[in-house]
Batch of 3 targets.
Target 1
Amino acid sequence: MIAKPEDRGREIAVEVETSTNHPEQIVKNYKKNVKQGRFVVFVVPDEEIKEKIKFNLKNIGNKFKVYKLNFNY
């Protein structure tokens, strides 16, 4: 999902990750969005996935943030 600010500011890519079974896809998506000038936000369900995403991207770039959301129903 791409968040486009009304004031034509910097776009933000929102990536929802429920697993890290394919780290190459996470890196690919990150690079694609950064190349287009977007900041990337990853939304994850738990701390383990959060840490794995940070690990996979640590040598790639720093234009991202990872948020863990609680999905309690």
Target 2
Amino acid sequence: MNRFFGYIKVQFIRAIKHYPIILIFTAILTISVVFFVKVMFQTKDGEEGKKRFEIGLVGDLSETYLDIGIVALKNLDSSQYYVEFTEMEEDEAKERLLDGELYGYVLIPEGFVESIVYGENKPLTYVAANNPASFGPMMANEIIRVVSQMVIQSQNGIYGLIDIAELYDVSKKTYNKAIKDMNIEYISVILDREGYYETTYVGLGNGLSYKDYYICAFLILLILLWGIACASLMTRHSMGLLRVLKSNGYSMGGMLLGDYIPFLLLMSINMGILVLFGNQGIGTLVRILPAVILLTAMQFLLYELSSNIITSVLLQLFVTVFLSYASGLFYPIYSLPQIIQVCSRELPVGIAFEYLSEILKGKTGWETLPQIWIYSFAFLVLSYVARYYKLRSNRYE
């Protein structure tokens, strides 16, 4: 036990000597990532407030009722906040659509309103440049279909009311009032349609909002980048010292823990500094710590598999980029292929992401903790095996 504490004391002294350089690299990486996240959030907020889909209207819009309907759609309907309707010629619509300036355009057939009056139904046509199987065109086509159905049903209702008025010899005054009330009812149904359904926001991924999702993602990315910044401390250039210590009775498992604990402590200090700058308490750091343990155990194994600092950095970078992509740190997980979505739940970075997501949602994350401890223990065992074989293969070094 005395040998273990003596060894870990030496490793702490080494860590303290390396920490100023590590801290500089850590600060540069952290500031860069935080700046990037801030710019990304500001850009996203600006887009949400300004971006609207522009849809062209092509055809004869001089008919009174159609013109009134379009004016109402532009100024009274809730769609005015996310859809902009612009009147134009078909040639202009085609050109702007191909240039990507339009989301699509609607072809209104000649005599559209007149055909409705006489019981005919000339269909509206929606033209889009995107794949018709994608979400945008499907949604627009569905809107056009619903509008057409509304026109047909409204038409049937009005003609039905005319038939009833003629059948029961209703006075003109009563008939006109009934037609007016019916039109008002139809307009109310269309303009107040949001009251007929309930919107549930499930978040960008893991039940998180856009900002929380990427805060969680970049927090994990920071931990991985901090681990790479420790390459000068964690890369072992020679196994000679370990071989000598082992021959003098030092436990290989004890030396392994003596190397890992200072590494974990440095990463925890970095996280503690970040938590303090975020105006969070020590309780937040304690809740985040399991994710730090998992990721540092994984990176510790990668250092044990490396033989020099160049190999260490390259291996760490490759694993960081690959696991970050596969776990949805760069793009929302739902945008990735289905097989990657399934596999990401079993990857160490994906597990850490899931755990931090639960913490951000105010939960305990107990369901993910068993996986974290199993993976962390497995990484340390594999690190022991890797060091054992390195000592044996380099016994004549």
Target 3
Amino acid sequence: MERTRHPPFFWLPQPDRNDMLTARMKKIIRFCAPAAAALLAVSSLCAQPAPASPASTASTATPDAPAPPELYEREGDSTKYVLACTLKSMATNEEFQKNVETLRNQRQLMVTLDQRQKVAITQPEKEALKASIKALEEKLRENENTMRKEYGFSLTRDYLLQIATSRVYVLLSEDDYKKLSEEDKKKPDYIISRPGTGEDGKETTFHFRQEAVVEGIEANENLNNEIRAINELRQNKNQLEIILKRPELQKTTNAALRKKYETDLAYVTDAYLKKTDEAFKTYKFSFVSTIYLRYELTHLRIALDEKGYADFLAKKKALAATTDKK
């Protein structure tokens, strides 16, 4: 399992894990919720295997799940989306996210290697970078073909990932985890554990307990918006607390400046507490603890340009005509 530092307040199994992505890449793939991680080393990326086929994971359909509409339009968005595939289990969704992350990291690495090649001074260095770029191009092409075949996915297309069912997990303290019965610990998908580094710098394991299952695209969008709003308030609160602890502000003779920061902190803290309290009343679990989301049912949609939409309508019309003849 991938190791991480002390967990942030919101973990998402999302593919947006690279702060170094170009503006074009960020536009190409749009997802409903962001996350971030560092670019992997050149050697490890070049050696990465092709994305795994979803056949390698349990693709269990959600019982009685309504069929998603073939064509989809978002309110306030003129773009039309057509369904590419539906991912029907947490394992399949997590496999897909890992595969997308691999592609995006490889594409970004291509940009990085190309930039290094342009400023390389010695011929041996240029040749080594050229060989690395060629090897990575072949690996990226292979991985893209796999993703296109299995998911209908390509880095050159604009996508929308809709969350239809998610499971919400909340971080447990060590004491709360110890209080769990062995029966609870063995329940499928009830407790999940992730390795990491604690605040004391030592290796530890974080345990999360399932608190809720959120059904429906709109309900999941509302939940994600709620979490993002609370995270923004928390980050602002933490930043103001850090500023007020700075030695230069502690010693300042500018009382008005210090008062301003204290007033801002009081306002943000009040807004944060009210927001978390309202969220608790709505969802019945704490938003103060670290939250970890796992996606169980998602719909991956392709954005259609004018030609793509015209082709879609033509094919639909031809299919209807064939059906009528039968």
